[in-house]
Every structure is written in C-alpha cells, then in structure tokens.
Amino acid sequence: MHEYSIIQALMGRVEAEARAHGASAVVRLRVRIGELSGVEPELLSSAYSMWCEGTICDASKLEIVRVPAAWACPECQRPIPRGERLRCASCEVPARLRQGDEIFLDRIEMEVP
Ligand SMILES: [Zn+2]
Questions:
Q1: Residues paired with 110 in a beta bridge
Q2: Tens-place pLDDT, residues 75-93
C-alpha cells in the first residue's frame, strides 16, 4: 500500500522531531497532500491510525490539507486556468506544475513536559 509507506516515512520524521524536542506525545500533525501526488487522503488517514497505535502519536490527530493542482507558463508566469490546455497560448511552451504534487509535513504539535 502506497499510503502506508508514505506514513512510515512521515512518522520517521515525526518521531525524530519529537525525540529532538523531548516530547511526551504528539498532539496533531498537518500534512499537505497535492491533488496529483497519487495519495488518497482516506487511505492515508486509515494507514495513519493503524500505524499510530502504541506510538508517541497514539492520541494524535492527522489533519490533511488537500492542495489543488496549479499550472503556469514557465516563460511569462501566466497561470493556466483549470481545464485549459496545459500550454501557454502566447509563448507556445508547455505549462509547468506550480503545486499539486507535494506530500509535505506542514506542522507538528507536540506535548513537551
Ligand atoms: Zn507564456
């Protein structure tokens, strides 16, 4: 399961952060998931709750922020509206993805005694 390996990688970083701060528990996580990242937020959530049992994240909440795909022209920076051809009409160059393929750990809230 793709989402499970993402959670594993994510949690490695969360645990390292928690350890570095001497945290007793992780309260909340926020991740940004791009529309084109290939991640299903629902699967990610269930992988998360499976993974968290008995860890420092046991009582934590996972907040998933979905990031829509956004394209722009790499030459004139004109944003390409949704549903349009992924090519700049004036520069005749292919559009470049600006956002929407990320899997990004945005924020960790933890309890530090
Ligand atoms: Zn252009």
A1: 26
A2: 999 999 999 999 999 999 9
